[in-house]
Amino acid sequence: MIGRDGVTGLVACAASLALFWLTIGLEKNPLVPIGPGFYPRLVLGITAALGLALLVADVLRRRARPRAASAAPAVRLNYALVALTFAAFGVYVLLLPLLGYRVATFLFVLGCSYLLEPPRRAGLWLRGPVLAALTTLATYLIFDDYLAVLLPRGSWTGF
Amino acid sequence: MYGLLWDALVGLLQIKYLLPLVIGTVAGVVGGALPGVTITMTVIIVLPFTFGLDPLQGLAAMTGVYVGGSAGGLVTATLLGIPGTPSSVATTFDGFPMAKRGEAGRAMWLGVWASLFGGLIGGVFLVAATGPLAEFAVAFGPWEFFSLFILALSMVAGLVGRSLLKGFLSGAIGLVVTVLGNDPVMGQPRLTLGIEFLEGGVPFLPVLIGVFAFAQIMADVEKMGGRGGLAAALDRAMTLSVSHGKVVWEILSRPALLMWTSFIGVLIGVLPAVGGSAANMMAYDQAKKLSRHPERFGTGTPEGIIASESANNANVGGSLVTIMAFGIPGDAVTAVMLGALTIHGIQSGPLFISQNPQIAYGIFAAYLLAHPIMALVIAFGARLMLRVVSVPKAALFPVVLVLCVVGAYALGNNMSTVYVLLVFGLLGYAMVKVDLPLAPLILGVILGDQIETNLIRALMTDADLWLFVTRPISGGLLAASVASIVFALWQHWRVEGRIRDIEEASDF
Hints:
The structure holds 2 protein chains of 2 kinds. Chain A contains 5 helices and no strands. Chain A has helices at residues 4-23, 38-64, 79-99, 101-116, 122-146. By secondary structure, chain B is mainly α. The relative contact order of chain B is 0.18.
């Protein structure tokens, strides 16, 4: 069995080799005889070797010292919340060009604040929309109006 | 040189420059004081606001964030015993015990004044050393630049994180990011993976924002569920008033300590990636070793606060030297500043000072002015800041994420950079979970194109690879790279040995 480091090394090695494969067909430029593939191959070769070294080191370490049971109680981490936050952010990014900055940002800030701290009292129910409205309004006014950053308009909303 | 500096100082007092500097310093102090919000995150938040400003206004704001953030952590470190940033951890050791015994004002102001003096000592070094170092670097050919970048990358990979192998792998992944898209020498397409946007390569700012912001926010989200209430820990009766003359004398009557710990800060700042978190701990350790009363450290001795705070602000000066003389970011904050320069079409590197003297001296002036501004901000806002630290993360994080999106979007006014942000946000968090350090990745992304360009230029000029070793400066830099790797190996071997000894001892 391989551990976390081993998997990391394996993924790095495999991805590097896959990209290395793509450099093989690159055409050379007569002005730069070394070619555009020389440096990528060097970097990808080194990365693959480092990934492989990490994998081998992990296997050797596990053989030498089988994992002992941890005496200290593990801290419980809320990975579900992390996954949901990433998902909310992903949906926000996808909806930005469809709903436009103002609508998408309002919904994201509202949803994300409720997600990170579920509202259990009136104050928290109220905080979400106020925060979402203020964030959307302030950033829109500063960036779109003042700093001339043309924030996304929604293809669905036209807004 | 001093004429230019004077002109820059006077110029920066104009409201159009002073205002961004003050706002940046306030943001830095508040961001630094907020536990869980680093200076890097604060500078990332401030970055998009600088896009519409002229280069010096934007850089003045960022310099303010950097200086303010380096000092802001001391407020919560001394008054609440919670370091706002990693660079104020050592301040907690003596600052909080001093505050607990009823000398909160003395503890905080020792930190503020030590930050100011340390920062100004760093400023002297910044102004005096940057020009000569840049002049020295102007004589570099592609061999020397290649070797310099390799040295920076090997130092970062070796010194950051617990595993040398992982440090190098992270740096290599950063270099891989830069080989996607057209090659920087001839612009020939390669490894675009069929994505049109990649033809221009991967822009490094969304990478930096995604990696650092998500890694930090998600690491906090993992632990969410508890309640903040930091401000509740503040004793409302705590007085922050103090005799400033006495506090300043307490610091200046220890000139050797102040100079030595500031020097440590500057030196660590010059070295890429080591950063303020190491500077304050090393300076504290040195102050304790050199003290006639080491047993007093940890009980609320002023030397501990002076050492930690002077070092972490002097460290900022050192970091700025590296980016302004060589174009190599010393840490994530200077990496963002480098990005801001790029956005404004300014090329960093050894020619930066000679080609942009107004901006270069403007940064010096902003750095020097940010220190007294920082002291004023803390003087007027310390109590208010202690209220701000109770802002719930559930309210803070969505706003920060929106600002990250705006920052990425504003770089090209299109969604592609936002997708890059999302992808690298996921990568950054994944890297934290598998214990791969982030700093080498970022340095790899920043330096990748320059490493390639200089390598190809060198090989096209002369295909002899030995020139990298036989040219004195290039050879010296490569020797330093090898030395830094050997040092890192020795350090890792020593730590492993200690862990093994502890494990063996616990078996009996």
